[in-house]
Prior knowledge:
Alpha-Beta Plaits, five-stranded antiparallel β-sheet, 15 helices, binds flavin-adenine dinucleotide, 20% strand
Amino acid sequence: MTADLAARLRDVVGPAGLVDDPAGFLTDWRGAYSGTAAAVVRPGSTEEVAAVVALCRDLGVAVVPQGGNTGLCGGAVPDASGRQVVLSLTRMRRIRDLDAANSTITVEAGVVLQTVQEAAAAAGRLFPLSLGAEGSCTIGGNLATNAGGTGVLRYGTMRDLTLGLEVVLPDGRVWHGLRGLRKDNTGYDLKQLFVGAEGTLGVITAAVLELFPAVRSTATAWVALPDPQAAVDLVGVVRESAGDRLTAVELMSRQSVEFVLRHGTGVRDPIADVHPWYALVELSDTLPDAGLDAVVEAALGEAVERGVVTDAVVAAGSAQVATLWALREGISEAQDSEGPSLKHDVSVPISSIPAFVAATDRALAEALPGVRVVAYGHVGDGNLHYNLSGPEPRDDGAFRARAGELNRIVHDSAAALDGSISAEHGLGQSKRDVIADYKSPLELELMRGVKQLLDPAGLMNPGKVLPG
Ligand code: FAD
Ligand code: 2HG
Ligand code: ZN
């Protein structure tokens, strides 16, 4: 069956589109999820994607869409059956159009996020989605996970940046929805169904994305804070004076920063004294001389007076800005060097962040004394990566054995504050079963109804998102 399938897939995608050595496509970025596949294909056009999907549908073979494979919940990895086909979009990397007057860019799904940012910059525009994996993640993956990152506070998530989509449906038909319209009230907004669906409703092949005026000045500060309440207050104080020029407020616990200082290269502590929490604050403007340093200094001065900020450093020059961002963006990798981790991307109303941290810290310390909480993230969006590493000295086996119980503490804590158990990374394989405890039966029924309508045979990324 596999040899026959491979031959038929080769007929569709040609020799260049059939992967000989599939190893890199079968395990995720962290090595946390692995599977096997009947074949890995890399179609070069929408027509080829449609033909692959139609062939798989005819043969009853499941398809797993994959972009840069940087996802953090196992959504792009096939199961262990060896019967699924991984459909990688990485050969579909054409920028089809940049319409400067409409401020839009039309790109294929396999274009790497950083390439889109660079194309926008070359045209004097900004594509504002920004995240640690931007050098390898793809626009298709960003869309399928409704990626967030560090610019959401000002520009919104991928959902907000998307005007149109082209999608190959599970039956092989192509939905041509590549419209560059900011206003269109002609019925249901179908594109939003595919954004955040993690490849369970179809394969996104191209998108029209919104561009913004280029940023010509920024100010970046590293701020020491006494507690999470101070971080919430900081967002308020800076927003009051900077308004829309506030682009990012990233929160980091001392534990998170210590991991980067221990494992990162070329990083150093920006503030000599040790503080329990830090925030990275960024302001930006389209004017070249917007005087943002003065704006951020005044806002931080106000925050110090109100007792919100304990100490602060405003970056002088682009090298220092890069060092501060390296401290923030290095946390994910640094935590991996500390052994197995339990990753979380919860959200709560911003005002509830202090209560969330206090309650969850307490419950975890009781459940597993010494557990290392690595809390950081997009505090301006109410989204925290409340990640866990095991106690020291390390006993990885014992820590892994407690995963279900510890995860539940974090999820319950977010849910008790009307939060979400996944604000960014999605459900994939990792949370697809636990979500049944946090969504109402009605919500699950509607989700299953949508899946049934678009993918009645259940062949599009099965085993992901929807509870089994
Ligand atoms: P993949 O990992 O290949 O796939 C992700 C999901 O999308 C899978 O379910 C897959 O089936 C589906 N998919 C992929 N392409 C398509 C397509 N064309 N059509 C349909 N379905 C598709 N995420 C954030 O939101 N914010 C962050 O700040 C952030 N920071 C990160 C930092 C690091 C260091 C790393 C490793 C990851 C980070 N992520 C973050 C997670 C990840 O980068 C994002 O989820 C990203 O959007 C995934 O893109 P990808 O191309 O790698 O997708
Ligand atoms: C981030 O904000 C990413 O850095 C990754 O969403 C979070 O690795 C993580 O847990
Ligand atoms: Zn994040």
